[in-house]
Amino acid sequence: MFPLKVKYPQGWESILIKSILNREVPPGSLPLDVGVLVSNVGTATAISNAVKLGQPLIERVVSVTGSEIAQPKNLRVRVGTPFSDLIQQCGGFKKAPGKVVSGGPMMGFAIFDANIPVIKGTTNILALSEKEAKAKIRHTCIKCGRCINVCPVGLMPTMIASLSEKGRFDEAEAYYPMDCKECGCCAYICLRRYH
Ligand code: SF4
Ligand code: SF4
Q: What is the domain range of residue 63?
């Protein structure tokens, strides 16, 4: 075993396979197609509990974090627990957040009601400040290519975006949009240019 560089999105299965085994998962393929099965620790534990103990997945470890959480923590919680209970367990909000996100800062999605329950896929609750959540002004693409350089899949986000915006979806398909993992690296690097 050897530690990998801490680099987003290193934990992604196709990136892990490339980093550890130097095997490429071709577009539209699964890790199994290159002879690999990737499971995270939580999934491996859940499989073990199901097979050895006959125990279904009834709890998860959820991180409750972000600048507006009073006491950020990792909590082991029952599936079905409302997000609001977890936030309360962490001392509540410091002040009204600008946005509460289910998931991480790059791939999470905003929630409109903190009473939604923890589900099997819940990993993280993130409370952003008003300033952090402020929508960015959209600028015209200046063709700098930074989004292409950072895309871990090797896509051309700028071509996919510009053709899609013009409704030329058939042409956009030639740039493999379905291989996008929605990691957000292209949007992050692009918006950063303007701040
Ligand atoms: S990083 Fe932004 S501005 Fe640069 S090429 Fe990509 S979309 Fe255009
Ligand atoms: S979100 Fe952007 S950087 Fe990430 S895989 Fe999709 S196109 Fe590439």
A: 59-133
Residue 69 and residue 91 in contact, taking contact as beta carbons nearer than 8 Å: yes
Ligand 2, atom 3: closest residue by C-alpha: 151
**Per residue in 83-103, pLDDT tens?**
999 999 999 999 999 999 999
pLDDT bin (cut points 50, 70, 90) of residue 6 is confident
Distance 51 CA to ligand 2 centre (A): 36
Instruction: Please choose from 136, 137, 143 the residue to mutate so as to test ligand 1's pocket, defined by most ligand atoms within 8 A of CB.
Output: 143
Tokens of 43: 């999934």
What is the pTM for the complete model shown? 0.78
What 8-state DSSP symbol labels residue 76?
Answer: E
In short, whether 182's Cβ falls inside 6 Å of ligand 2 is yes
- Quick check: CB of 118 below 6 Å from ligand 2? no
Model confidence pLDDT, tens digit, residues 173-189: 999 999 898 898 998 88
The answer to the question of residue 30 being in a domain is no
In a domain, 32, yes or no: no
- Kindly state the DSSP code that residue 126 receives in the 8-state scheme: E
